[in-house]
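step=encode ok
step=design start
structure_in=
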């Protein structure tokens, strides 16, 4: 009994620390919630604040959103939009993997934002509308950070998706109709019986992530296990927590300098952070180790980075080889065309841009949605020279 009490106390304190971190380190808090958060603690905290604040559970407007609306309408709608927009794969698979982790983050964020309003109500302190709007805006920011961390999207996509989710939640309130009956215990019970397997798999999503993370951390204790360091780096990179990812990739390099993967990922991070010289150096090292790494994408990234650094001759060599190996990669053809244009080889550049367009048009449906942006960019370049 004593050991159980100690465990529960320590676990409660850990959840409280995660909760308080939302106020001063929100981005780090979202990453930590994925590793140590608890659905039970998030639900209890959210319900306690909801009861104390007297905000209707399904309430949604420009001044605030209820707990139920946040996790049952706003979050699922936003996730569906991100899945479609970022082309993350099948909605069912992504939901089973990401919904509960995202819900834990959103529940904690909701409780953290509305706790001051709940305290004000209990103390009978009047809260003006501008304050409520600021609180709501901070909740949307934290929710965007949650989607960014869990699904690897950007703040812009997350923000627009949440705006759509908010409209959906408001529509349910303003035009309830028969849709509100779906939230009755009767319908919820039969929905659970119908989708019991999917719901159980979804509930396991957070636990699976946390178990994998713990196993990798245990393996990383071995000073010679570079792969564990690399996999931990990939986890943090997917969350866009680059400050945590970089040290793991650097440790992987130190353990095994002959692996191209850590150099390649360090280059990708550096390029996204606009540290182009660092990115070029990492891509160059990765290509020297294995120029076919990641289906030769190391050459494409090296070429695009070299072009951004005004080294078109250097970029040309890498991109020529890449396009020979993967002629139907529209991104590679686009960068190849841009490099040729920089070298005043206009006719060849137009051919490369046309190849990028054709690569998208002939791609399978799921692939076409992923690479359609490169077709738009290539068509723009063709129009600029009268070749489109």
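sequence_out=
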């Amino acid at each position: 009994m004593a050991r159980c009490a100690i465990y529960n106390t320590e676990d409660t304190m850990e959840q409280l620390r995660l909760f308080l971190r939302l106020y001063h380190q929100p981005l780090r808090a979202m990453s930590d919630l994925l590793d140590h958060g608890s659905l039970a603690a998030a639900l209890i905290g959210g319900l306690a604040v909801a009861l104390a604040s007297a905000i209707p559970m399904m309430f949604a407007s420009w001044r605030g959103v209820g707990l139920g609306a946040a996790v049952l309408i706003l979050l699922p709608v936003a996730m569906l939009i991100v899945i479609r927009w970022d082309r993350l794969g099948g909605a069912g698979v992504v939901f089973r993997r990401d919904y509960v982790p995202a819900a834990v983050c959103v529940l904690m964020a909701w409780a953290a934002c509305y706790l001051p309003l709940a305290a004000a109500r209990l103390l009978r302190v009047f809260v003006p509308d501008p304050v409520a709007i600021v609180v709501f805006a901070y909740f949307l920011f934290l929710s965007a950070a949650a989607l960014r961390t869990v699904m690897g999207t950007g703040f812009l996509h997350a923000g627009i998706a949440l705006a759509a989710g908010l409209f959906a939640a408001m529509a349910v309130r303003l035009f309830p109709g028969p849709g509100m009956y779906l939230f009755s215990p009767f319908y919820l019970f039969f929905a659970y019986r119908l989708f019991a397997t999917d719901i159980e798999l979804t509930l396991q999503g957070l636990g699976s992530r946390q178990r994998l993370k713990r196993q990798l951390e245990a393996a990383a204790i071995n000073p010679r296990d570079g792969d564990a360091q690399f996999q931990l780096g990939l986890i943090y990179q997917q969350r866009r927590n680059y400050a945590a990812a970089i040290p793991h990739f650097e440790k992987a390099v130190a353990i095994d300098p002959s692996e191209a993967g850590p150099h390649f990922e360090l280059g990708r991070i550096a390029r996204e952070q606009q540290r182009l010289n660092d990115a070029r150096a990492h891509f160059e090292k990765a290509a020297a180790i294995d120029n076919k790494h990641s289906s030769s994408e190391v050459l494409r990234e090296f070429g695009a980075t070299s072009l951004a650094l005004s080294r078109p001759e250097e970029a040309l060599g890498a991109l020529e080889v890449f396009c020979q190996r993967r002629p139907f990669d529209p991104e590679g053809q686009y960068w190849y065309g841009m490099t040729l244009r920089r070298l005043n080889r206009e006719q060849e550049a137009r051919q490369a841009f046309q190849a990028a367009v054709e690569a998208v048009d002939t791609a399978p449906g799921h692939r076409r949605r992923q690479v359609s942006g490169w077709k738009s960019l290539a068509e723009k370049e063709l129009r600029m020279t009268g070749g489109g």
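step=design ok
step=annotate ok -> Confidence is low (pLDDT under 50) at residues 1-7.
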